[in-house]
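TASK: fixed-backbone design
INPUT:
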C-alpha cells in the first residue's frame, strides 16, 4: 500500500473521530467519515463541525472544500474503495459497569462486508484488554480473509483533551500495537503524518489496549486519593488544598486537586474495563475499584454539604432553590458526558430541592435532561444556596457580594475562602472545613 494510494474510511465522527478524520484529510488523504447521526453527517458535508472545538470548524470547512473529507450514514462506494479503516466509536459502560462494545462490534461487522486483501483496520476506541484478539479479529475474519495473512490490524488509543484536541493530536506521543510487525509499521507511518510527537510501537495489540487504560486509571486513582484526603481533612478541620499544595513541593509527590467527582468519557469509564477483565483473571483490581467508588461518592458528599449548610442557617433542603454553576465535567468546555453534576442534581432533587443551573457552554436541553432548570447567571446566584461545580473562567470572578443568600459551596479550588468568610458568606468546599 503506497502512501499516495491510501484512502481512509473512519467510523465515528464524535469528539475524537471528527478531528482525526479532518487531520488526515488536511495531510492530503482522501477520507470518508461514517456516523449514524444524520445531523452530524449533514453538517460535515456542509463543511461545518457539530463539535465545539477551537480550530475544528475552520479545518473541516477547508478539507471539505478541497474534496478531501466527506461523510455518510452507511457503507458507500467511498467506503468500499478505502484500504484503511479506522474505528473511533464510543465505548461506554452498562448498568453493571461492564464495557458496552456494541458500537465497535457494529462498525467491525460493517467493515467485514467490504474488507479486501491488504487492507489495514485500526481501532482507536477504548476497549478492554484482549478485545482486538478475541472479538474484533474474529468479526473481521467473517470476511473470509485472515488477519496478518490477508489484512492488518492495529490498535492506537487517542490521547487528547477537549478545547485542546487539535494541538494534542498533532503534538502528543502516539502508542501503536499491531497483530504483527507489518501492521504496526503501517499504522505508525500513517499516524506519523499527523503528529510531531513520538510514535511508540509496543509489542502487540493487548499491550497497546492496556496502555490507554493505565493512563486514565492512574489519573482517576490519583484524584480518588486527593478526594479521600480531602474528606479526612474536612473531618479534622484541616484545609486539604493548603496541605496538598505544600505536600506537592516534595520532588516526588504530585497529588491532584480534590473535587466533586470525575467526569468525561475516559477517566470515569476506562478503569472499569480493567476491573472487568481483572475479575476474569486471578487478581481482582481492588485499588482501582475502590478509587472508582470514592470518586462516584463525591457528588453525594457535595449534596450533603448543601444540606448541612442550609440547616446551619435554619433552612431545610426541601423546597429550597439550589443554584448550580456549571454542569460540564471540566472548565471552559461544553462536554457534559459522565459529569458529576448529574448525580448531584438528581440527589438534590430527590431530597426535595429545585436546581437552577447556569452554564455558558452547555446546551439547555442537556441541562434539562439532567433534571435542572437552565437560568441566567444572576438567577443562579440568587438561590438559597450556590454550588460552584465547574471551574469555568467566568466563575473565578465571583465576589462575596454576588452570593445573595450567603451560602457558597465551592467544589473547585478557584476562590479564596477567607475573602468570602470575612464578608459573612458561609463558605464550604471539598476539603475545606
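OUTPUT:
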Amino acid at each position: 500500500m503506497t502512501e499516495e494510494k491510501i484512502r481512509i474510511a473512519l467510523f465515528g465522527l464524535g469528539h475524537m473521530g471528527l478531528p482525526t478524520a479532518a487531520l488526515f484529510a488536511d495531510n492530503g488523504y482522501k477520507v470518508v467519515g461514517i456516523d449514524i447521526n444524520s445531523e452530524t453527517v449533514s453538517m460535515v458535508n456542509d463543511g461545518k463541525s457539530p463539535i465545539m472545538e477551537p480550530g475544528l470548524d475552520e479545518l473541516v470547512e477547508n478539507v471539505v472544500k478541497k474534496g478531501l473529507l466527506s461523510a455518510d450514514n452507511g457503507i458507500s462506494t467511498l467506503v468500499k474503495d478505502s484500504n484503511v479503516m479506522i474505528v473511533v466509536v464510543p465505548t461506554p459502560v452498562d448498568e453493571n459497569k461492564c464495557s458496552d462494545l456494541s458500537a465497535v462490534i457494529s462498525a467491525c461487522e460493517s467493515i467485514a462486508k467490504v474488507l479486501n486483501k491488504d487492507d489495514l483496520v485500526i481501532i482507536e476506541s477504548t476497549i478492554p484488554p484482549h478485545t482486538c484478539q478475541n472479538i474484533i479479529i474474529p468479526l473481521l475474519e467473517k470476511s473470509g480473509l485472515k488477519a496478518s495473512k490477508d489484512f492488518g490490524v492495529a490498535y492506537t488509543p487517542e490521547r487528547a483533551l477537549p478545547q485542546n484536541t487539535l494541538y494534542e493530536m498533532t503534538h502528543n506521543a502516539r502508542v501503536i500495537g499491531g497483530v504483527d510487525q507489518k501492521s504496526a509499521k503501517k499504522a505508525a507511518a500513517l499516524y506519523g503524518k499527523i503528529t510531531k510527537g513520538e510514535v511508540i510501537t509496543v509489542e502487540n495489540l493487548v499491550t497497546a489496549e492496556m496502555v490507554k487504560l493505565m493512563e486514565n486509571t492512574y489519573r482517576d486513582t490519583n484524584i480518588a486519593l486527593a478526594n479521600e484526603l480531602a474528606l479526612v481533612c474536612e473531618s479534622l478541620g484541616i484545609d486539604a488544598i493548603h496541605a496538598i499544595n505544600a505536600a506537592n513541593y516534595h520532588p516526588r509527590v504530585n497529588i491532584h486537586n480534590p473535587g466533586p467527582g470525575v467526569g468525561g468519557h475516559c477517566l470515569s469509564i476506562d478503569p472499569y474495563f480493567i476491573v472487568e477483565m481483572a475479575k476474569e483473571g486471578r487478581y481482582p483490581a481492588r485499588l482501582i475499584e475502590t478509587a472508582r467508588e470514592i470518586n462516584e461518592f463525591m457528588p453525594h458528599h457535595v449534596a450533603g454539604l448543601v444540606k448541612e449548610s442550609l440547616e446551619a442557617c435554619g433552612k431545610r433542603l426541601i423546597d429550597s432553590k439550589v443554584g448550580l454553576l456549571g454542569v460540564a465535567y471540566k472548565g471552559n468546555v461544553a462536554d457534559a458526558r459522565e459529569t458529576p453534576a448529574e448525580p448531584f442534581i438528581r440527589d438534590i432533587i430527590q431530597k426535595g430541592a429545585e436546581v437552577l443551573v447556569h452554564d455558558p457552554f452547555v446546551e439547555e436541553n442537556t441541562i434539562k435532561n439532567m433534571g435542572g432548570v437552565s437560568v441566567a447567571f444572576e438567577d443562579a446566584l440568587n438561590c438559597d444556596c450556590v454550588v460552584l461545580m465547574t471551574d469555568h473562567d467566568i466563575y473565578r470572578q465571583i465576589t462575596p457580594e454576588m452570593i445573595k443568600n450567603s451560602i457558597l459551596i465551592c467544589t473547585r479550588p478557584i476562590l479564596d475562602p477567607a475573602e468570602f468568610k470575612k464578608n459573612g458568606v458561609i463558605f464550604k468546599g471539598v476539603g475545606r472545613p
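COMMENT: The chain has 16 helices and 14 strands.
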